[in-house]
Amino acid sequence: MPQPVSILHLHSTFDLGGKEARAVRLMNAFGDRARHTIVSGMPGRYGARDRIAKGIKYEIAQDPPPLQGRPSVARYDALARYMRRFDLVLTYNWGAIDGVMARRVFGRGVPPVVHHEDGFNEDEANGLKRERNLYRRLALSAAHGLAVPSSSLERIALETWKQPASKVHRIINGIATGLYTGKPDPKGIPGFVRKPKETVIGAVAGLRAVKDLPALVRAAGGLSSRFRLVIVGEGPERAAIEQAAMAMGIEDQLVLPGFLDRPYRFLGHFDMLALSSRSEQFPISVVEGMAAGLPIVSPPVGDVPAMVSAANAPFITEYHGEVRLRDAMQALIADPELRRSVGEANRRKAQAEYDEQRMIARYAALYEAAMGRSGALS
């Protein structure tokens, strides 16, 4: 049996989010064909390790060179020396871009690097920073490939970061859609019990400023029907969300259960999935909601307008319009049959276009091409 591929993962953070969940699914899919070493740019942030399947060979790096800090030849040298131990290096988002720069500065003997960009934090949600664009352009010249999940990121990579089309790979995020077809676990949301004649509006997101969840709370506060708003996730904006609910007088209708894994266990408790983000690319929560047969209410961020079914298009609202967000939710609350038909159209599209097997095959092919080892991971 061939030796397993040795892969170094340099993450901006390895707390569980969309990019981390995808990385873990790929690790699990590669099985014993690979062994993995994981570095988080934010020390101690390794929550996604709990999703790595039993039997997968991996380790959390002990005392790796720092991924973040001021540009430094010494730090780039240390990173390059560390990277030379592996067959392939995978870097993720701005917080790990220095791994790519290290290969550019000290490239001799450094294995191929594939960089992944999945979106931007609050500091670039309203516009990319010129100095970061220049840095990315310079660093990415040393990468074998750049993987992005959305057409908007693909356009940025080509036009702003000036990467050649042959290097940029748009690979749509996928999930195991079949897991979302069954009934939800009655205990999937701890302590949650549906009340008679209420509509359940769900959101799944990190409680971060870029998700603008207080705006969703304010939009829900204007609804004229019985509802509950369940926001699944954890993060620093929890208090702001609770304050918005109190200001709207709906604190008793807000449920904040914290982070919950395996979304297929609880998404079926929702009647719709709502987003209020200021910036997205190809949000995995939308794919999960579609696979669960839910209508999606969202501003037109990232690829969301193209992701959803044609039947769902009327519920993709104007940018940052809380009134429009409220009106879209109100229309779906008022018509259960409309919710059902839109949700079924979304489910069919998710099953046809967003199943994870296609995604896994494309990433495996990209990584194998980088190493020049056809079939090493597939």
Account of the protein in words:
By secondary structure, the protein is of the alpha/beta class. The protein has helices at 18-30, 73-83, 97-105, 130-140, 151-159, 213-221, 238-248, 284-291, 304-307, 322-334, 336-353, 356-371, and strands at 5-11, 34-40, 57-60, 88-92, 113-116, 145-148, 168-170, 199-204, 227-232, 254-258, 272-274, 296-297. The strands form 2 sheets. A 7-stranded parallel beta sheet has the order 3-2-1-4-5-6-7, with helices on both faces. A 5-stranded parallel beta sheet has the order 10-9-8-11-12, sandwiched between helices. Strand 4 (88-92), helix 3 and strand 5 form a beta-alpha-beta unit. It is globular, with a radius of gyration of 21 Å. The model has no long low-confidence stretch (mean pLDDT 94).
